[in-house]
Amino acid sequence: MSAPQNAVQAQPGKYIPSSAIKTLYSVGILIGFLAFGAGLMKDPQRIWFSFLVSFFYFLCLGLGGLFFASLQHMTNAGWSVNIRRISESLAAFLPVGAIMAIVLLFGAKNIYIWLDPKEMAHDAVLMAKHAYLNWEFFVVRTVIFIGLWLIFSKLIIGNSIKQDQTGDEKLTVRNAALSVAFVLIFSLSFSLFSVDTMMSLEPHWYSTIFGIYCFSGLFQSSLALITIITVFLVNKGLLRGLVNESHLHDLGKFMMAFTVFYAYIAFSQFMLIWYANIPEETEYYLMRSQNG
Q: What is the pTM of this model?
């Protein structure tokens, strides 16, 4: 049934941050820069660990937004069209994440012991992993991974914005193909990126599901942020006629499912390591259960 001729198509409102919010953001950024500078002078290793955690967490939120949008394009989902722009907006952090990745490279030698020649010289395990864990290959992988994510973000979201302006349905088909390619590349690149940046902090330890463990946290956290932003915009009246209770129910079901999935992966990793009781695996949990 066609819509009545006098029906008015709902249009989303534009969120404009208040002066107080902008001031709060600015003060927070300034405090962050000052704290980072002070930390570099007082305890460089600790501040670089803190930087890494923040970098990885917020980059995951940006990637999660792009992954969610790609998932909707791949499946030709109709329910999520009105909230897909919110998930796409999270990817705006990716260029900032790229800059943070460059900054991290300057501090990498403070936190990764496999970049210390003295450690490598008398450690047979690290020497065996040197073909992968070395400075040159680490830099190359980081540049390639983040470069690919930026390219796909530009293409997919660029087509989405262009479709808003032109209404060209071919862009939907184009984004479906791009999303399939992105998800395939993302699954491999993010797994390796997780190993490079996080798991290699303890290079003697390994877990075959660490990449999935990080991904489950990425998607669960991203879904939570998308939901929070959606509810915020609904309460502001900016999505009136566009987002209803069903959209919020679907987001809630998504988030519940991946919260359970996250818990399942985390417990599975622990259980497999616990009952195998192999020294090079159990050290990860021993450190975390004994004030390590």
A: 0.89
Angle, in degrees to the nearest 10, between helices 44-74 and 135-166: 40
Of the candidates 248, 255, 218, 253, the one whose C-alpha atom is nearest the C-alpha of residue 82 is 248
In which band, very low, low, confident or very high, does the pLDDT at 292 lie, cut at 50, 70 and 90? low
- Lowest model confidence (mean pLDDT) among 64-68, 104-108, 123-127: 123-127
Report the C-alpha gap between 189 and 197 in whole angstroms: 12
Inter-residue contact 61 to 90 (CB < 8 Å): yes
CB under 8 Å to 231, separation ≥6 — which residues?
A: 248
pLDDT in tens, 252-262: 999 999 999 99
Contact 85, 69 (CB under 8 A): no
Q: Is the pLDDT of residue 147 over 60?
A: yes
Which tokens go with 167?
């209404």
**What proportions of the chain, in percent to the nearest 5, are helix, strand and coil?**
80, 0, 20
Quick check: helix, strand or coil at residue 72? helix
What burial class does residue 188 get, using C-beta atoms within 10 Å of its C-beta: 0-12 exposed, 13-18 middle, 19+ buried?
Answer: exposed
- Separation of alpha carbons 62 and 3, rounded Å: 36
> Which candidate, 130, 133, 129, 135, places its Cα nearest to that of 109?
135
Residue-by-residue DSSP string for 139-169: HHHHHHHHHHHHHHHHHHHHHHHHHHHH--T
Residue 8 has pLDDT above 80, yes or no: no
